[in-house]
């Protein structure tokens, strides 16, 4: 039991380290802008580039490493991740910094996919939902604690020390991986074509669009969270910091609740979640004249954002373990891949909505994607129920 707790901690630490690196840029935009003499908007493209490289590269690299030992693959990927952050540390030009971030993004998605694969390998079925929820919470903790820490370090000691902090945590994480995780973990050997057979399954085809539209719905408004809080709900700058921290905690609560769902109804609970989310999004613009009501609606929406994580991850893993054991890592990567596509889709949609209709439109705009997510999860639940005797 003690070994399982240590291994669980290491998997959460991997997620925290990867999330810390991914989200840090948001907190040090101004410092990087001054350092390299480019606009804040230009530095902001680092976030977009990272997300797109992460989403596009992950499935290809996942397929290539599928036949190798997953423990040593994870060690190599974390080594490249550390190298990428080291290159960011020593970057002397903005172009060099972009290249270093691309290197980091190339391996981040595959590393978390392997970490999620380890969940099924080291934990009994009854504990998988609990552990998955904590691994996903690692990213939330990185957002709530890691980014403010990185920002504070950057402000007081320089942005390079922020990257040095990530490197230090990464080295410690690699040491703990080496000491604690089982080294014989391999998925069933198969060709790339054999691994891709997973994607022919209708349960996977429907399921992989759920995290995309789920996050697209949220990011239509979440991209503009700060201006919504300050200009629409009229909170002070000081209150903004407090609310962002509270919303970060709300995200952790959502992740933990997501784990609880896997012990109960799982995906069967999600239609009710999306009905509630739809109502909240439609009501959001009407709350803009009532500061605390608006803050409450935002908090409830942020809690709803990660509820899908553990149930859909368990769904992917169960389908792969039973019918496509050669595709476990690919199955583990689908949630993170399509979540990043969803972030890009939602952010782009939000930009169009705000440009043409103003900030008041982001709630109803997100509700359209929520409706699509609702239809998909109802369809998937029907398909799972229909195929239950033969498969799941």
Task: Give the SSE map.
Blueprint: H1 2-27, H2 29-36, H3 40-65, H4 70-90, H5 94-122, H6 125-157, H7 159-180, H8 192-196, H9 202-207, H10 209-222, H11 225-232, H12 237-263, H13 270-283, H14 291-304, H15 309-323, H16 328-357, H17 362-387
Helix pairs in contact: 1-3, 1-5, 1-6, 1-7, 2-3, 3-5, 3-16, 4-5, 4-7, 5-6, 5-16, 6-7, 6-12, 6-15, 10-16, 10-17, 12-14, 12-15, 13-14, 13-17, 15-16
What does this molecule look like?
The radius of gyration is 20 Å and the shape is globular. The longest helix has 33 residues, at 125-157. It is built from 17 helices and no strands. It is mostly helical and 392 residues long. The chain has helices spanning 2-27, 29-36, 40-65, 70-90, 94-122, 125-157, 159-180, 192-196, 202-207, 209-222, 225-232, 237-263, 270-283, 291-304, 309-323, 328-357, 362-387. The chain folds into two domains: 2-186, Growth Hormone, Chain: A (Up-down Bundle); 197-387, MFS general substrate transporter like domains (Growth Hormone, Chain: A, Up-down Bundle). The two termini are 28 Å apart.
């Amino acid at each position: 039991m003690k070994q399982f707790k240590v291994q669980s901690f290491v998997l959460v630490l991997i997620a925290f380290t990867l999330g810390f690196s991914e989200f840090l840029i948001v907190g040090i935009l101004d410092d990087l802008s001054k350092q390299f003499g480019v606009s804040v908007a230009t530095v902001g493209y680092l976030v977009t580039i990272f997300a797109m490289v992460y989403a596009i590269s992950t499935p290809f690299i996942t397929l290539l490493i599928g036949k190798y030992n997953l423990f040593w693959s994870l060690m190599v990927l974390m080594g490249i991740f550390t190298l990428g952050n080291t290159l960011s540390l020593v970057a002397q030009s903005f172009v060099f910094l972009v290249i270093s971030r691309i290197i980091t993004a190339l391996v981040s998605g595959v590393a978390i996919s392997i970490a999620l694969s380890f969940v099924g390998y080291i934990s009994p079925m009854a504990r998988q939902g609990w552990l998955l929820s904590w691994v996903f919470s690692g990213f939330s903790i990185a957002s709530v604690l890691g980014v403010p820490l990185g920002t504070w370090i950057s402000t007081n000691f320089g942005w390079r020390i922020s990257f040095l902090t990530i490197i230090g945590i990464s080295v410690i994480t690699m040491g703990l991986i080496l000491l604690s995780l089982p080294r014989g973990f391999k998925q069933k050997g198969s060709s790339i074509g054999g691994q891709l057979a997973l994607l022919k399954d209708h349960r996977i085809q429907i399921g992989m669009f759920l995290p995309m539209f789920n996050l697209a719905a949220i990011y239509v408004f979440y991209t503009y969270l700060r201006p919504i809080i300050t200009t629409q709900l009229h909170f002070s700058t000081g209150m903004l910091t407090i609310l962002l921290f509270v919303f970060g905690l709300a995200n952790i609560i959502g992740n933990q609740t997501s784990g609880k769902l896997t012990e109960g109804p799982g995906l069967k609970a999600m239609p009710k979640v999306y009905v509630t989310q739809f109502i909240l999004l439609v009501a959001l613009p009407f709350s803009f004249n009532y500061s605390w009501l608006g803050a409450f609606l935002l908090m409830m929406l942020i809690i709803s954002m990660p509820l899908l994580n553990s149930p859909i991850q368990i769904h992917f893993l169960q389908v792969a373990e039973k019918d496509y054991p050669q595709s476990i890592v690919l199955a583990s990567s689908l949630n993170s891949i399509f979540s990043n596509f969803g972030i890009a889709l939602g952010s782009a949609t939000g930009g169009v909505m705000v440009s043409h209709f103003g900030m008041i439109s982001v709630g109803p705009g997100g509700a359209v994607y929520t409706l699509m997510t609702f239809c998909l999860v109802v369809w998937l639940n029907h398909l799972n129920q229909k195929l239950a005797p033969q498969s799941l």
